[in-house]
Amino acid sequence: MREQLRTLRLAAWLGWQLETNWASPWLFAIYMVIKPVTGSLMLVCMFYAARYATGGKVPAEFLPYLYVSNACFGLVGTVTFGLSYAVITDRERYRMLKYVFLSPAHFQTYFAGRGLARVAEGTVGAVLNIAVGLLLFSDMRQALGTTGIDWLWLAVFLAVGVVMLWAAGMILAGACLNLSRNGMFLSEGISGVVYLLSGVVFPIGVLPVWVQWVGLSLPTTYWLEGMRRALMGPVPDSAPILRGPLATWSNPELALTLLLTTAALVAFALWFWRWNERRAWRLGKLEENAGV
């Protein structure tokens, strides 16, 4: 146990240094502000364009909805899809994956540590993103200030969500162990599907019914709904278009569903990782370089 904690700590430190490219914390903080905020501002421009084109029929509550959703989804991209990039960069760029596997360090714990670095990066990015939104847009200040942030539910959804994102990331990272050429394309493709179906930019209630069921099968849908409620409260009656299939669910129901789906995801991730790890070692995939 002591050795695994040491591996976890050192892997998190290594992951943070690799992500920051050994830059100073202040210089990296500027990058962490610019990257997520520019993505959110693009959505804000789309919101105002849609509102202008429809003569103001798009409700003002839509702006904080998509801004907060997009800020939270930054954690999904950073943690879940970042772990698969860690496999690719360690194998293709630094060519150290095989040596990490052969070292006394626990292989799975090493990637758990890399995931912790991603969690820190994603959390700081999301907080800075929301802070900039509060500074620039009055609709954001009104949405987060009307009911106040529910810190208890925020902590619950954030804690369960981090475990869920890590498990999803380990599934993708496990698959990348055996995908020497197309691993990064797998992550990018799944990222787009999850972004579309989890209700990030628009509520899943506007999608066709059968697509809604696909979205409801994703744990990220429940997590984003819970994060929005913890930060902004329930959807106001003045914006019925934002009410999706989960609008009538209570916070405990959302949290329980998220917890059960996360538990199932963690169990599958542990099995899937071990299976891919053994297969990658047997076929020599850990040292296979595709030159990408």
From TrEMBL:
Bilayer disposition of the protein: Multi-pass membrane protein
Residue ranges constituting the ABC-2 type transporter transmembrane domain according to the UniProt record: 18-230
Highest taxon listed in the record's lineage: Bacteria
InterPro entries documented for this protein: ABC2_TM (IPR013525), Nod_factor_ABC_transporter (IPR051784)
Signal peptide residue numbers: none
Subcellular compartments: Membrane
Entry GO terms, CC: membrane
One MF annotation (Gene Ontology) recorded for this entry: ABC-type transporter activity
Keyword match Transmembrane helix: yes
Keywords recorded for this protein, A-Z: Membrane, Transmembrane, Transmembrane helix
Membrane spanning residue stretches: 26-50, 62-88, 116-137, 152-180, 192-213, 254-273
Location (main, coarse): membrane
PANTHER family for this protein: ABC-TYPE MULTIDRUG TRANSPORT SYSTEM, PERMEASE COMPONENT, NODULATION PROTEIN J
Protein name listed in UniProt: ABC-2 type transporter
